[in-house]
Amino acid sequence: MTSRFLVTAEIPEPGLSILREAGETTVLPELPSPERLTELLASGDYDAVITQMADKVTPDTLKDAQVKGISNYAVGFNNIDVEAATARGIGVSNTPGVLSDATADIAFLLLLSVARRLREADELVRSGQFKGTGPMFMLGHDVTGQTLGLAGFGRIARAMARRALGFGMKVVFSPRPPLEREVSDEELGEFAGRVEQKPWDEIVETADYISLHVPLTDDTKHLIDADALSRMKKTAILVNTARGPVVDEAALVEALNTGEIAGAGLDVYEAEPALADGLAEAPNTVLLPHIGSATEQTRSTMAEMVARDAIAMARGEKPENPVNPEVFGG
Ligand code: GLV
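Above: inputs. Below: predicted complex with glyoxylic acid.
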């Protein structure tokens, strides 16, 4: 029997062609409301669904679901209640690995842009206010020789570390903040001797730049809260390309306005796509619209991955990137 796929938002080629070749493929013209998604999953019309980060798949969404697999077009899968999917025997897959470099590029771009006041400088030139440079003009923050503190040390954090080392930064990390876990040299691989593990509290208090690379979980929600912001250096710059709720955005606005930290570069927001009150007006920020993985090549590779995994799950087979492999026998 031919497989039937539901795609909640158009994905790039070759994703759609791969799906269409494997079965009947329905691409929705716009993301479904939570109620509509619940109905579609319960309809029995689809074997597998390709979801986007903005599709919230809750226990309620899944209560009568008849799909065999959910192939999420993102590496993060906090939008899906994996426990509820597993309980119903529904597989979940994601897109790890292929977007690490693209996302680290955006994280490093944010770091540099905030450090060197890119947005302000660009606006100054465009608005005709550039009347000549000078010794006191547009001073920013050094990058080379400064300490970058990484929250997390997974694939994206490692890609960020590679960039930072290339710029002559000192790199410290905490693998699973706020919890502590010792990382062996073997696990560090190419980074052994080049980066240093530090307690999270020490990173918060001593790093010149902090870049967040943790998944959003109950433990990491508001990892950067008012208390952490108050303990950071006044000259510190925060970069978030992970998930918005890892930072208490209202507390961040306050910290930026009162000069508790020097600046922030964000690609993700707590109530995305909405911004916290005052964030757009806060000083020394660069705000991007969640484009970490948004390059043609990366998005196309992700599309191929989600298509292949949707096909596998529709056939009752284990996908290449399972989030809950136990559904497929481990
Ligand atoms: C992007 O945020 C992703 O998780 O892929």
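The chain has eleven helices and twelve strands.
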